[in-house]
Write a structure and sequence with these properties.
By secondary structure, the chain is α/β, with parallel strands linked by helices. It is built from 11 helices and 9 strands. The chain binds guanosine-5'-monophosphate and manganese (II) ion.
C-alpha cells in the first residue's frame, strides 16, 4: 500500500486501510461480470465554443452503474489500473462510445467529435493501435468522429512507447489530444515529439483565474504555442462565467466544464446534439 498507493515509506495499518483493501478486492471480483453485463457506460461532457455557444465536441467519461447505483471512477479506476484491468475498461467504453456515435448518425444527426481516454497501461497491450482502429471500422464510423486523449508520462520506457503509439495512430488518420496539459514533467518535449491536434489546458490553471498572474501568463503562453503549431486549445474544468471571460481574453475559444455541462448520459447527450442551447459568452 505504502509503495504503490500512498507513495510513503511507512504506512500504519488502520481500519480505513482495511476497508479500502476490501473494497478493492470486491471491485476486482465483480469487474468481469460487470463488463459482460454492460454496467460501464460513457457519459458525455460537452465541449463548447464560448464565442458562439456551439457544441464542438464531447468527451466520453466512464460511469459505472451497479445495481442501480453509481460507483464513481475514483473508487475503481486506481484499483483496475493497478490490477492491469484498465485496458478492458477503456476498450469497453470506447466500444460503447463508437456505438453511440453510429446511432446518432443513423438518427440523421450530426454528432460532434467525441474524445476517449486511453490510460497509459494500454501502451503495452499488443497491437493496441490496430485494436483501436478496428473498433472504429467495426462500428461503421470514421476516424473523423473520434479523438484519442493521452496524458503525459514520467517513465522513459513509457515515454518512448507513447511517441510511437501516437505516430502509429496519426498514420491512420486519428486525432490526438494531450490531456491535463502542463501538469507533467515533460509538456514541452511531448509537444516537440508528437503531432497532437489538441491541447487540453488542465483545470488546475483554470481554477486560479481570473486573478492569478502566473496562471494567466502560463495559459496565454500555452495558447500561443498551440496556435503557432496549428493545434487547437481547449480549457478543462471551466466552472464560472468569469473563468470563461478570462479565457476568452487570453485567446482561448473552447471550453469544457460544469459551467456548460456535467457529463451526461446518452439520452441527454442526444438532446444536446439536437438542441444545443449553450450561451455565447460576450467578450469584455
Ligand atoms: O483527467 P480528465 O481531464 O479526463 O478528467 C475529467 C474528469 O473531470 C471527469 O471525471 C469529470 O467528471 C471531471 N470534471 C469535468 N468538468 C469539471 C468541472 O468543471 N469541475 C470539476 N470539479 N470536475 C470536472
Ligand atoms: Mn480526459
Amino acid at each position: 500500500m505504502g509503495k504503490n498507493h500512498l507513495k510513503k515509506n511507512v504506512v500504519f495499518f488502520t481500519e480505513e486501510l482495511k476497508k479500502k483493501a476490501g473494497q478493492g478486492r470486491e471491485i476486482i471480483a465483480i469487474f468481469p461480470k460487470a463488463v459482460k453485463n454492460h454496467e460501464f457506460h460513457p457519459f458525455f461532457q460537452a465541449k463548447v465554443d464560448m464565442k458562439t455557444g456551439k457544441l464542438v465536441g464531447f468527451e466520453a467519461l466512464c460511469r459505472w452503474i451497479h445495481e442501480g447505483k453509481f460507483i464513481y471512477p475514483d473508487q475503481f479506476i486506481p484499483v483496475l489500473d493497478k490490477e492491469g484491468l484498465i485496458h478492458e475498461l477503456d476498450m469497453a467504453i470506447f466500444d460503447e462510445t463508437c456505438r453511440a456515435i453510429r446511432s446518432w448518425i443513423d438518427m440523421g444527426l450530426n454528432p460532434p467529435r467525441v474524445s476517449s481516454n486511453f490510460s497509459r497501461k494500454n501502451l503495452f497491450v499488443p497491437d493496441i493501435e490496430e485494436k483501436i482502429c478496428r473498433k472504429i471500422t467495426e462500428n461503421g464510423i470514421s476516424n473523423e468522429n473520434v479523438e484519442i486523449e493521452i496524458t503525459e508520462t514520467v517513465k522513459e520506457s513509457e515515454y518512448n512507447r507513447l511517441i510511437e503509439f501516437v505516430r502509429n495512430l496519426k498514420e491512420n488518420g486519428m486525432h490526438i489530444s494531450i490531456d491535463d496539459f502542463g501538469t507533467g514533467y515533460s509538456s514541452l518535449s511531448l509537444i516537440h515529439n508528437i503531432d497532437a491536434d489538441v491541447v487540453k489546458i488542465d483545470k488546475s490553471f483554470v481554477d486560479e483565474i481570473p486573478g492569478n498572474h502566473k496562471s494567466e501568463v502560463l495559459i496565454e503562453s500555452i495558447i500561443n504555442i498551440a496556435e503557432r503549431l496549428d493545434m487547437t486549445v481547449i480549457a478543462e474544468g471551466v466552472e464560472t462565467l468569469e473563468q470563461g471571460q478570462e479565457l476568452m481574453r487570453l485567446g482561448c475559444r473552447n471550453a469544457q466544464g460544469y459551467f456548460y455541462s456535467k457529463p451526461v448520459d446518452y439520452e441527454t447527450a442526444t438532446e444536446l446534439i439536437r438542441n444545443p442551447s449553450f450561451e455565447a459568452i460576450r467578450e469584455l
